[in-house]
Amino acid sequence: MLVWVIYDIVKDKPRNKVAKACLQAGIQRVQYSVFLGDLNSNEIDELGLKIKALIDEDTDRVYIFPMCKEDFSKVRLMGQAFDKKLITNEIRELFL
Hints:
This protein is α+β, with helices and mostly antiparallel strands. It is 40% helix and 24% strand.
């Protein structure tokens, strides 16, 4: 299942650790605070638990959005939708 992880984390150290956890889970950065990839439901739950342990729930915001491929095919990109320096070929192919 495709999953988006979107966050706004105040402090650098936990923000960097969340980014690292996303990469270790196998999802790719598409914006500085946005990751996208294909994970199963257990992997999504595991990533959620890791992220919860890293953030300050009083100040930080993290959204994990699972999305089926049918709905993902309806995503519309406009303008400079993704930072071309960050997006990988794996993610680019999802939009073709």
